[in-house]
Specification:
About 0% of the residues lie in helices and about 40% in strands. The protein contains no helices and 26 strands. It starts with 13 loop residues before the first strand and ends in a 36-residue tail after the last strand.
Length: about 350
């Protein structure tokens, strides 16, 4: 398949289920929008449209679950409604089945959006953000309609899962003029604990996490300006801000799973400038800039084996997938030992340094 850099052809988010078997997006344009489910787990990807009697609004959201159903979030009058869509096997009647899940109120000044797919594959959550308070709702995988699971002071954004069971959720909380990532324990009444405290007066956001390895992708202005950095969950080592990640308008969107206790070897995919693609590993001192497939949908999925799958859609290929491997890092430069008379003196033992003094390279 030919790969080249072009403009992404869709503005609707493309969400991939927790296990990578399915994905969903809002397809169509104008007044002919409809949910579309992609099957990614078979030999060839294929798409199934899930239209209903009425077209969907442009601000509707969809989320793929691991059982093949698609969660949809709609604004309906003064409510935010949630439903599960699935292909109907009936010989007659609608092609799309719909299971209503209930709704939450659309209060003045409160914005509601879906959070990334829960790692357990069945539950789904939404974040309601008001002027001074944020609420996490479980909207699927729970009987009796949406259930409030956490209430946080401040305005929250982001949303990154820290485990494989859907218990620990990281949110970027703006409170008292600063934004800090916090961890929310959804099984302990929404108990909140600090996650990123890089500097007292810095804004520290969590962008992605790899629960298997503990790798965290971070954006912080602790180095003096907003920079991409990386750290390891639970590690005493400081966050690093490699010079090679100083890219304009770069957003990490996928991190390689399955690298237990080896965060330095995890592949990370970044969308650069909205249309470009870069691949990076913490063990490398550079990024690989690559082209993207025509009609790229702006996201992707790493496999544990290190292959990055990029979904794309064009008029000729309405459901396509391109696979890329992380390129091999070049060998380190050859070092020539200096003459004995010029040999450097041994350095004193390294000592731990506060994060503010940590090297940025």
């Amino acid at each position: 398949m030919t790969v080249c850099a072009i403009e992404i052809t869709t503005t609707a988010p493309f969400t991939i289920a927790a296990d990578g078997a399915y994905a969903a997006r809002l397809a169509g344009v104008g007044e002919a929008r409809y949910p579309e489910r992609w099957t990614l787990g078979g030999p060839e990807p294929y798409a199934v449209p899930l239209p209903l009697a009425q077209p969907e609004e442009a601000d509707s959201e969809v989320l793929a679950l691991t059982d093949g159903r698609v969660l949809i979030h709609r604004r309906v009058a003064d409510r935010h409604a949630f439903a599960l869509l699935y292909p109907s096997g009936a010989a007659a009647g609608p092609r799309t089945g719909e299971l209503q899940l209930g709704s939450v109120g659309a209060e003045e000044g409160v914005r509601v959006r879906l959070l990334p797919p829960s790692p357990d594959g069945h539950g789904a959550y939404a974040l309601a953000v008001g002027p001074g308070q944020s609420t996490v709702w479980q909207v699927a995988g729970v009987p009796g309609g949406p259930r409030r699971v956490a209430v946080l002071a401040g305005r929250c954004s982001g949303g990154v899962w820290l485990d494989r069971v859907g218990r620990l959720l990281a949110l970027d909380r703006e409170l008292d003029g600063r934004t800090k990532a916090v961890a929310v324990d959804l099984e302990r009444g929404g108990e909140v604990s600090p996650l990123l405290q890089i500097a007292e007066d810095s804004d520290d956001r969590l962008l992605l996490a790899a629960p298997d390895s503990g790798l965290l992708l971070i954006r912080s202005d602790a180095p003096g300006e907003p920079r991409l950095g990386w750290g390891v969950l639970g590690s005493a080592r400081p966050v690093r801000f490699p010079e090679c990640l100083r890219l304009d308008d770069a957003h990490p969107f996928a991190v390689q799973p399955g690298q237990a206790l080896m965060p330095e070897t995890c592949g990370v995919a970044l969308r650069v400038g909205g249309t470009g693609l870069a691949l990076w590993r913490p063990a490398d001192r550079h990024v690989f800039r690559l082209g993207t497939p025509v009609g790229w949908l702006g996201t992707g999925l790493w496999t544990a084996e290190g292959r990055l799958h990029l979904p794309y859609a064009t008029p000729e290929v309405p459901c396509g997938l391109v696979g890329l491997h992380q390129p091999e890092a070049p060998p380190p430069p050859v070092r020539i030992d200096p003459p004995a008379s010029m040999a450097p003196q041994p350095h004193p033992p390294l000592r731990p340094v506060p994060l503010q003094q940590a090297p940025l390279g």
